[in-house]
Amino acid sequence: MTDIFDFWETVLARLGERISPEMLNWLMSHVLPLTLTEDTLTAQVSKPFLKIWLEQNLLSDLQATVNEVAARPLTLQITLPQATDVPTSPLPSTNSTETSTLPEPPVPIFTRPTPSVEQTTLPIATSTAATQDTQVAAVSENERNFGKRSIPIDPSCTFDNFIVSNSNTLARSAAFAVAQQPAQYQNPLFIYGPSGLGKTHLMHAICNYVRAHTPEKKFLFLTSEDFTNDFISALTQKGVEHNRAFREKYRSVDYLLIDDVQFFGKKDGTQLEFFHTFNELLNSKKQIVMTCDRLPENMEKVEQRLISRFRMGLVVEIQPPDFEIRSAYLQKKAAAADISIPTEVVSFLAENFTEDFRELGGVFNRIATLQSLSPEPITVEWAQQQLADILPTERRIILNPDVIINEVASFYKIRRDKLVGKTRPKNIVFPRQIAMFLCREMLDLSFKEIAAAFNKNDHTTVMHAYDKIYKELQTNIKLQEEMQQIRQFLTGG
């Protein structure tokens, strides 16, 4: 069997090609390889917070490198010195009798010293996942007050003024039901759809309803980033009291409303803590409401056990507004602002700005402001002049890998998660290669950057895809036509 230390040194050398020198040095100093079997590599860190930091920032790269060096899938286990010191979730239980001083680990069997907690410094992570999960640790002392992290409830967002149509009626009905009877049938309630369609309005509406009709009920409404910030604040402050305060905040409410849960992706430690919070609330018959920009199964870098729990209750979609609801929205805005807008102008705006309510609201505000400064009456011709720079025919789409991936998936009528997944049927692989080619051609990204966008560890896959599509385009007339159509969609041409 391979010597574990030889194996570990090979892993570190290979991993050094993917991560910064600071992060590599941190691994060398704080992670001790313990055992290597046919199917498992076990390594150890000295403190729980080091384990959490490793899982949040380096685990994916480390796991991929271990599999690469072993030339087979290995289970990577990160342990603490004594099993009794390992909590069942990232933070010590509030019922635990342990003190804030964690036991020191045994002397390592290799020569590198294990620093104490006071000596330990965490490297600045340069990966996307690390940036998302560690930058939030640098919060001010004022923000460390858990009570400060919540979204102020907008009293203007109610069920009564939520404009209902076929595109959102189920979501509105479900939200109203949980506001009236929490933790009955729609628990959790998972509302998904693109940004700007009214998901957050419904969250505010639930809070306003609870505040007005059952004021004795406690609710907490915040974003997934707020939850992450609180979690990291609890980790970075010494003492069981901070951990108890964190759990008390999230597990003592009657309603927990989390906006934009897609941002839990890649944050392994945060996901683990939310998993336990979720279970505790569900077992206590408390209501959970979440919003997301996609279906649970399409969330990236989110654990399967969380995804399965997101689907336990009711999953409802809010679709882009149709012409009637866009018109009704504009008329309601005009009435609230005491502005008279002719019906033909409302129709013109509703026909040309179709994305979401935020876009429509911005267009209305522009029209209202310009009208207040101009003596001219509002006509279709006048509106065309005032909006010439943002009308659809003159818009420029801001391209990024996600936009290209979504457009290619839509063009070939396949699911986005298949395009960025590992499946290899021909009807998936070829569109995937086209999307990779377009990312290279239209965004001028490196092969490594494109590989990351497609969840690939090896950028040579992208190089192969680019070469293949480039050669195909020289002779394949059908592909040339398809590529031209996709480019036109992407450029708005």
TrEMBL record:
Residues 84-102 have a biased composition (Polar residues). It is found in: Cytoplasm. The keyword Glycoprotein does not apply. SMART domains: AAA (SM00382), Bac_DnaA_C (SM00760). One of its GO terms (cellular component) is cytoplasm. One of its GO terms (molecular function) is ATP binding. InterPro entries: AAA+_ATPase, Chromosome_initiator_DnaA, Chromosome_initiator_DnaA-like, DnaA_C, DnaA_dom, DnaA_N_sf, P-loop_NTPase, Trp_repressor/repl_initiator. GO terms for biological process: DNA replication initiation; regulation of DNA replication. It comes from the Bacteria. ATP binds at G196, G198, K199, T200. The keyword tRNA processing does not apply. Oligomerizes as a right-handed, spiral filament on DNA at oriC. Domain I is involved in oligomerization and binding regulators, domain II is flexibile and of varying length in different bacteria, domain III forms the AAA+ region, while domain IV binds dsDNA. This is Chromosomal replication initiator protein DnaA. It comes from Negativicoccus succinicivorans DORA_17_25.
